[in-house]
Design a protein that fits this description.
The chain is of the alpha+beta class. Helices cover about 30% and strands about 25% of the residues.
Length: about 425
């Protein structure tokens, strides 16, 4: 089969490399891809942007694509999958209705509460005065979230009412997140360790992927502002077999039942960010696509043929499939540009990529990189994801840092405590 992967970041680089390993994949098209990312002979980069919905559909038709996999959330929220399905093209990713689970935090919270999915209490507001009045009445620490897509940065943890007021002002009045902040969600702040669990679903059945833990804050010790993710590891030891059963029954089964009750078809990834509270697992939010950087530690551990599994999901026969995993652990260290997630530079030369990729068990996934006169340079906040497999989590972490330390560019920043709590 011919496969198309939409997107150009580290998550998509991992998807492309994994799908190209399938004996069923004759060609893997990557659009728009990343010019700096090295690729094997099966992979061809195309120049159609991820937000060009019609152009991507035309590309899929002209290249006889049998399966399209959508990486980023924005095209899904915009309705890319609907455009493809209207043309009879197989696409792995929910339509606009299903993508609202990620595209609107207010919608998803109401969905959770309506269908009995364990979550924190919350209210949505579009008016600053009403929102601040509610926040001041709330006795606990709060989380203020921009309703729409904000590249993982629209969540502000507030210790007191003054911080909540500043967050509300930033989102609703200063429009720090643009249209994503036309509405806010004010939520009770849950406590406990977090875990990411992704499931592939065809809307009727689901298959859980291996568990992972992300590191959202920019600095060691979970300090500093939220980012799109500074690293991850898999498996998450805290995700026990008993906990998995609860998550299956209380989170994913209820979600699919709710989607079916509301007649919302969903073929794609349900990615649950969970808080393991003293009262049990509760969902913080859903993403409607593969996680980033979780994908970079989960897919390298997959033994099954990803292309076959995703095709089965598109054809409504996921029940026929099973997922197998290696016994190895994986760790990913994100190398970020100095200043990220605030203002950061672009265009700094990157050295050591070949040496890093040659380290035992290591893989280098390109995210915010570009080519300038033949030289790989920085071109984003999260520049590279350095993943390594190892027989143990300690081994995987040590290998990932050995590879990460081989790479150099001005302002390079990474957390030095990936998986430290698990270790």
């Amino acid at each position: 089969m011919n496969v198309l992967v939409v997107g150009g970041g580290g998550r998509e680089h991992a998807l492309v490399e994994t799908l190209a390993q399938s004996p069923q994949a004759q060609k893997v098209f990557w659009s728009p891809g990343n010019p700096a990312a090295p690729c094997g002979p099966k992979i061809e980069k195309c120049a159609v942007a991820a937000d060009d919905l019609g152009g991507l559909a035309t590309l899929a038709e002209s290249r006889a694509v049998d399966l399209t996999v959508v990486g980023p959330e924005a095209p899904l929220v915009a309705g890319l999958a609907d455009v493809f399905r209207a043309k009879g093209l197989r696409v792995f990713g929910p339509g606009r209705d299903g993508a609202r689970l990620e595209g609107s935090k207010v919608f998803s919270k109401r969905f959770f509460l309506k269908h009995g999915i364990p979550t924190g209490r919350a209210e949505g507001f579009s008016d600053f005065d009403q929102a601040f009045a509610f926040a001041k009445r709330h006795p606990k620490p709060l989380v203020v979230k921009a309703d729409g897509l904000a590249a993982g940065k629209g969540v502000i943890l507030c210790r007191d009412h003054a911080e909540a007021g500043r967050a509300l002002n930033q989102i609703l009045r200063e429009k720090a997140f643009g249209d994503a902040g036309r509405e806010v969600l004010i939520e009770e702040r849950l406590t406990g360790p977090e875990v990411s669990v992704m499931a592939i679903t065809d809307g009727k059945d689901f298959r859980l992927l291996a568990s992972a833990q992300d590191h959202k804050r920019v600095f060691d010790g979970d300090e500093g502002p939220n980012t799109g993710g500074m690293g991850a590891y898999s498996p998450a030891a805290i995700f026990t077999a008993a906990l998995e059963q609860r998550v299956r029954a209380e989170i994913f089964e209820r979600t699919l039942a709710g989607l079916q009750a509301e007649r919302i078809p969903f073929c794609g990834v349900l990615y649950a960010g969970l808080m393991l509270t003293p009262d049990g697992p509760k969902i913080l939010e859903y993403n409607c696509r593969f996680g980033d950087p979780e994908t970079q530690v989960v897919l390298p551990r997959l033994k099954s043929d990803l292309a076959e599994v995703l095709l089965a999901a598109c054809e409504g026969r996921l029940a026929e499939t099973a997922l197998e995993w290696t016994g190895e652990a994986a760790a990913c260290v994100v190398l970020a540009a100095g200043g990220y997630p605030g203002v950061f530079r672009k265009g700094d030369p990157i050295s050591g990529l070949t040496a890093a990729a040659a380290k035992p068990g290591a893989r280098v996934f390109h995210a915010g990189t570009a080519l300038h006169e033949g030289q790989v340079v920085t071109n984003g906040g999260r520049v590279l994801g350095i993943t390594a497999l190892g027989p143990t989590l300690r081994g995987a972490v040590d290998r990932a840092y050995a590879a990460a330390d081989a790479i150099a560019f001005d302002g390079k920043h990474c957390r030095r405590d990936i998986a430290a709590r698990a270790l």
